[in-house]
Amino acid sequence: MTNETPVDPYIFTTDLLPLDPRFLPPLANGLLGWRVYGDIMHMGGVYNGEGGDCHRANLPCPLAVRMDLDEVEKAGHLQHSYSLDTHTGIFTHSLRTVSVIASQSLYTHRHHPNLLVMEVLLIRQGTSREPITIKLDSRFTPQSDDIVFHSEPDYKGASYIQGQTTTAEVSGGVCPSVHIIWTPITPSLTLLPDQAQSRWGFVVVVAGSQDSVQAHYDTALELMANGNLRPSHLRAWEELWAGSTLELTGPDDLSRALIGCMFYLLSAFPSLHEAPGHFGGVSPGGLSNGGSGQDYWGHVFWDQDTWMYPSIGLFYPQLARAVLEYRVRTVDGAKDNAEKQGYKGLKFPWESAVSGREVCPEDIYGQQEIHINGDVTLAFQHYLYLTQDMSMFTEGRGSEVIWGVADYWVSRVTWSAEEQNYHILGKGTLSKHVSIENIVNDNIKYFLSHLLPSLEFAVELAALLKYPAPREWQQVADKIKIPFDQKQKYHPEYDGYKKGQFVKQADTVMLGYPLGLPMTPEVRRNDLEFYEAVTDPGGPAMTWGMFAVGWLELGEVEKAGHLLQKCFKNIQGPFQVWSESSDGSGAVNFLTGMGGFLQAVLFGYTGFRSVISTTTHHLLCIRGVSYLGNKMDWLVRGQEVYIILREGAKHTGNTKPCALQVVLKNSGTKIPLIPGKLYSIPFYFTTNSQMLKLSIQILSGYYSKVIIKYCLDIIVKL
User: InterPro entries attached here (predicted)?
Assistant: First the structure.
């Protein structure tokens, strides 16, 4: 019998930092982001460069500091340790000798997003009363290739610079301003002979104006004076985790992967209490990455809406709404994109910054990658089904997005009198910049898979809002051609696709999830088998999660597990940082891959899409699922599923909690959910002892018919 202390899966610890500095942990809070020890940071919405040259502006980071001991202290036994505590979002480097424990803590403040913080703590060990000195080696210089900074007079003892980016995103536009105030960092710190311990705090404040940066620095000084700088940060993270917990007792690597994905994804989103209108969207590499030529230049792709958004929306509708509001703010640019292409409505940019105008470095992709429209509308659709918050579509202007996209699709299709179908014809000439997938007709990957649900949702929303929908929306939806091989019972990727041709990533298999195209289990299985065999094994990280979801829908748990295991090749330890490709190349802190992995678990294994798989040896817990204004906690253990509807759940905006019930699909049994009461649903309630099929439904009204089309149609495989 051992008395070993259990390892906390939320704390990633190592004695050695990764050799590749790209895999040092990124710290972000939805407004500011940087990689620990890096001399560059980024601010959401601050880009430099016009059009295809637009990229995240690199800002100098005063916290590019490494802690070390002086030579005298190094003479003794020295231990290093590095940890990222995802409970709190704090990275800590600790040094231990016989005479001192020194720790350097770094964090982006979760509640006050304009603040970066460094704290140093020295604790004397043993009986020595000699002064103990540590060195702070800084790489910081107050310069940037993207911003011409000017020094300003010190503010309350702090250094101060300000400047503007050199080039606006749009010709004739305004260049954003950046103001930075920071506590000067001395080359060394000393624990005096009469001190048992001492703590120092350093803050960096970043804002867009003088008034704002000074006000936030005043707040930082006040927080430091009353001892509330770190506690206010800790409370904000505690609140986040209380509302979104995904835990598994079982394989340690899976637990760490799930926690790491949730942590980095939450870090990319704003505070729960931040005023709307400041969020600049989520790029594939997050706020810590994205300079010129790196990590997709910090642009916002379809990745945000299709890969990252769903897992956040399941727990935090208010954060999900921030994504939708970002898209609404880019409507004018999307309209301009459509007009330049010669079409009606809205064409959201393949790569987006602030204006909504196309900023892809290679114009051809901005012209060809039109499925982004469907990705955007799918996020709006999921939000409505999860929240019934109609305000997002009225005063929030979400209806403009949905109807603008519908108008674009209608103007983009071509009618074939011979076939009596609408088609989407590929445009362009095959070249080194244009793949065959972009010029073929009726491409499921790029066009059709998103067109149909976009149009159907536009018609549905119009009915809800009593808006006179153009009849063309339904006509095109009814007559659009979806390639299907009747003989082999599968969906060719495009018109003329030959079975066995190479595929880069999951695309056609996404017809089943997340797009929800009705098909028989035979067709679903055929799609999965055909495309798994020809998909690039070294493709993007999110690919195998989508295959796993598909196999879970069919009850093939072992196949799903094998495919999901491939995702672990993209996790670069010890801080669970994902790379775009399994060999470590491509974008880093690859939130897109993390989002796909989480969806495989949340909408595959853990149920809110298809299957929960567990055994008597594993316990699966999901806390904080948000549905129609309610918060629910789920526990799957052995042969039972436990559900509790939280009491006093807060609702946001116009989303009011609805009365819910569990419906066991096998038997038809209905169990009303009462807040605060724990419900245990054993497997013997079902007609099939291996499968528990249930649905969380609203008791009455319109949404009892449509809401469960999204995610809370559940099968638990026991």
Answer: 6-hairpin_glycosidase_sf (IPR008928), 6hp_glycosidase-like_sf (IPR012341), Glyco_hydro_65_M (IPR005195)
